[in-house]
Amino acid sequence: MPATPADQQPDQQPDEQPDEQPGQQVEDYALVGDCHTAALVSRRGSVDWMCLPRFDSPAAFAALLGTREHGHWTIAPPEDGPAVVSVERAYEGDSFLLRTRWTLDDGGVVDVVDAMPMGDRRADLVRRVVGVAGRVELRQELVIRFGYGAVVPWVRRVGGKGDAAKGLLASAGPDAVLLRTTGKLPRAEGRTHTGKIKVSAGEVVDTVLTWYPSHREPPAPMEVSHRLESTRRWWEGWAARGDGPAAQGPYAAAVVRSLLVLRALTHEDTGGIVAAATTSLPEMPGGTRNWDYRYCWLRDAALTLEALLEHDYTEEAREWRGWLLRAIAGDPEDVQIMYAVDGARDLPERELDHLPGFGGAKPVRIGNGAVDQYQADVLGEVMVALDAARRAGLPEDEFSWPMQRALLDFVVAHSSRKDSGIWEMRGPEQYYVHSRVMVWAALDRGVRAVREKGLDGPADQWESLRDQVRAEVLEHGVDRQRGCFVQHYGSREVDASLLQLPQVGFVEPDHPAVLATVAAIESDLMPDGLVLRYRTEASSDGLPPGEHPFLACSFWLVEQYARSGRTADGHALMRRLLGLRNDVGLLSEEYDVRGGHQLGNTPQALSHLALVRAADALAAADERVGAPDGQELER
Questions:
Q1: Within this chain, do residues 305 and 341 fall inside the same structural domain, yes or no?
Q2: Residue 12's CATH number
Q3: Cα-flanking dihedrals φ and ψ of residue 339, to 5°?
Q4: Are residues 297 and 165 both part of a single domain?
């Protein structure tokens, strides 16, 4: 591939653009993805986060956690042009084709359609500019930085007229990206490549960025219109397969979008489900609670599986079970709480000092030190999900039940061990009540498998231990003064994870201890009307105190309200929570009620799966009483 002389040198000149952070809020970002990786696109038209070629690969655009110099791709009206009157965004139908419409004060209107085509196992990002009205000029800025913004690539023009490989090529080490366009290629201005895209009504300019291993030839150009249409059909076809309690209710649109998010976070080839598409988006502005969520937590994935099964996505259950078998194969003593997308186990946590962090929140972390923790609840959630899969008609194969028996052997062997809990406390291990109940749940599902499905196993032994754990929790896990469950033995604090006790059948939703727990949560953990995980100032989590409401916990409370007869309260809280979604229906991990912003990694699988569960519980409650309180909500 001959290089054009003007652009054949490594991209190393001083940057002529200001070295500044994007200045966006978490809710300003929309997700596009291809079930292999994802990109975050801001309301300003900038792709500020994209890991290539996989969710947990190093980012090639990392401005989200740094400055523009750490990688971004912006297509937007120039600041010195006509003023922007409005910016409107929406996904096209039930898909992840994102359409952003810019309306300018001179009458110009232009759409930018962002998408990652499905089905060809290529890492492509398409940015299609469509003229709607008038004559519009957009400015394009491209800064590619591999290795989370640390690696400056060699950027050059390649190919000649009619050459299939013609474009702007950036390469460094194992990575290469090729930018092709039906317009003009951007040109170097220091370390930034800039250009203009001009369209009149009806005109279209397509620009496609393709990642590939640098030692190979670049993939062939794609036929963009065909790939966008087939991608739209793929997503809408997947969404149409779903059913479930809330499929036709007042929250149907929110449920469908949440299910789509869960699918977008599921790797197409491996079946692994990542907790979020990002790392190190802080739980507190400027704080240190910044974690990498681009991995597959057994807990989060199991809960996701339950939500998908409830809406008839059994094939996804089969794929995830296959991923699980591969990931945890071997000695049960080596089971981890999380894995890489492909099941890899080595996820050492380290800090990226060259990135200033989102809004200055440091450190920026990749990997996750919690991988080495013992969290007793995890196998309970796994067994509950696999039990749900059996009940949904997914048959056991020659490996799946022996694997579950091995997990139960591990549960039995460690049934009296303290742990770090669902919230991955970095302080001393405790007997967390939620964890103890999940030990009960694991044994309970094992007993059910033998007694109800005819599978082989020591059901009497499991049943005896299950009943011992239950008695122990009721003896040591309840505050005798308030009558509520507590965070851990010896504590008087409550924890939002206790809302999951009735979800797994440990107690009924209207059990006196559950109702007392709800009252304590409302008193202690809801200063702004949404639910905190726990009081950080009274915890031993090993971190500085302070965080914001955790959105999944508030959805758990909605579910509890629905299942205990407080349906009106459930609908009221549900409507408030849905109002916290961004303009394209996405939720992050936490919410700053007073500041009015989403916080934490995004989009968060746990938030979206909890939304689905809450909507299903409300639908079931409405059906019981025959008067849906949420029927007036716009869909």
A1: yes
A2: 2.70.98
A3: -145, 165
A4: no
Tell whether 223 and 246 lie within a shared domain.
no
Q: Give 565: exposed, middle or buried? Use CB within 10 Å, 0-12, 13-18, 19+.
A: middle
Same domain, 217 and 337: no
Domain count across the chain: 2
Give pLDDT, residue 20.
57
**Average model confidence (pLDDT) for the chain?**
92
Phi, psi of 600 (to 5 degrees): 85, 180
End-to-end CA distance of the chain: 52
The residue with tokens 């290539």 is: 52
Rounded to 5 degrees, what are φ and ψ at 450?
Answer: -75, -50
**Residue 329's pLDDT band (cuts 50, 70, 90):** confident
267 and 210 in one domain?
A: no
Question: What does the pLDDT look like over 170-194, one tens digit per residue?
Answer: 999 999 999 999 999 999 999 899 9
Domain boundary among 217, 236, 255: 236
What is the pTM for the complete model shown? Answer: 0.93
Any domain includes 228 = yes
Written as one letter, the residue type at 478 is V
What value does the mean pLDDT take over residues 161-168?
78
Q: Which domain holds residue 160?
A: 5-236
Residue 51 within any structural domain of the chain: yes
Indicate whether 330 pLDDT > 70: yes
Calculate the dihedral angle through the C-alpha atoms of 9, 13, 16, 18, rounding to the nearest 10 degrees. Answer: 120
Helices (H), 111-171: 146-149
Residue 205 sits in the same domain as residue 322: no
pLDDT tens digits, one per residue of 33-47? 999 999 999 999 999
User: In the numeric block, which tokens belong to residue 361?
Assistant: 């929140």
The pair of structure tokens assigned to 498 is 């206790």
- Answer whether 6's CB lies under 8 Å from 158's CB: no
Cβ–Cβ < 8 Å for 234, 118: yes
The rounded distance, in Å, linking the Cα atoms of 616 and 398 is 33
Please compute the mean of the pLDDT values over residues 301-320 and round it to a whole number. 91
**Rounded Cα–Cα distance for residues 43 and 62 (Å):** 16
Shared domain for 294 and 164, answered yes or no, is: no
**Which one has a higher pLDDT value, 523 or 541?**
523
Handedness of CA 313, 316, 321, 324 (dihedral sign): negative
Can you tell me the distance from the alpha carbon of 343 to that of 272, in angstroms, rounded to the nearest whole number?
Answer: 8
DSSP state at residue 217 = P
